[in-house]
């Protein structure tokens, strides 16, 4: 997974583990505050943040931390218990866009990250019930 403009993995381009941790730390307060997303997450968000850091490390081309700890990611299956609508997928991506911008990543890199995350975010949609129950 190389990026033409950066000649490296997304993981390396965002600053490796430290850069990714900053993004995750900027992202989850936005998720928790979001009216569509916040109710889906536990009060203690720290374990979720750690798993997200591990997963995104692997997803963006870094070490396979998530698989080493938990086995195959099977992300769609892991998200099935939660009502994920198209609106929630877009809200999640918007929170990530804002976290990337807050971390002042170059615009092209921000776009590459969102493009890479958009497919999975929409793949996790498992209901079209827009009542957001």
Automatic annotation (TrEMBL):
- The entry marks the following residues as binding heme, namely 122
Protein name, please?
Answer: Hemoglobin
Q: Which Pfam family, giving just one, matches this sequence? A: Bac_globin
As one GO molecular function, the record gives: metal ion binding
Q: Lineage from the top down?
A: Bacteria, Bacillati, Bacillota, Bacilli, Bacillales
What InterPro entries does the record tag this protein with? GlbO/GLB3-like, Globin-like_sf, Globin/Proto, Hemoglobin_trunc
Protein family per UniProt: Belongs to the truncated hemoglobin family. Group II subfamily.
This protein's superkingdom? Bacteria
Q: Which UniProt keywords apply?
A: Heme, Iron, Metal-binding, Transport
Name the PANTHER family for this protein.
Answer: TWO-ON-TWO HEMOGLOBIN-3
């Amino acid at each position: 997974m190389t990026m033409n403009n950066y000649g490296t993995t997304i993981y390396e381009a965002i600053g490796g583990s430290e850069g990714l941790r900053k993004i995750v730390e900027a992202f989850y307060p936005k998720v928790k505050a979001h009216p569509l997303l916040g109710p889906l997450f536990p009060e203690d968000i720290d374990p979720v943040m750690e798993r997200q850091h591990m997963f995104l490390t692997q997803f963006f081309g870094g070490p396979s931390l998530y698989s080493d700890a938990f086995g195959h990611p099977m992300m769609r299956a892991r998200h099935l218990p939660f009502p994920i609508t198209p609106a929630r997928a877009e809200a999640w991506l918007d929170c990530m866009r804002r976290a990337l911008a807050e971390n002042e990543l170059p615009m092209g890199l921000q776009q590459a990250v969102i493009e890479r995350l958009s497919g999975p975010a929409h793949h996790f949609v498992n209901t079209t019930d827009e009542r957001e129950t």
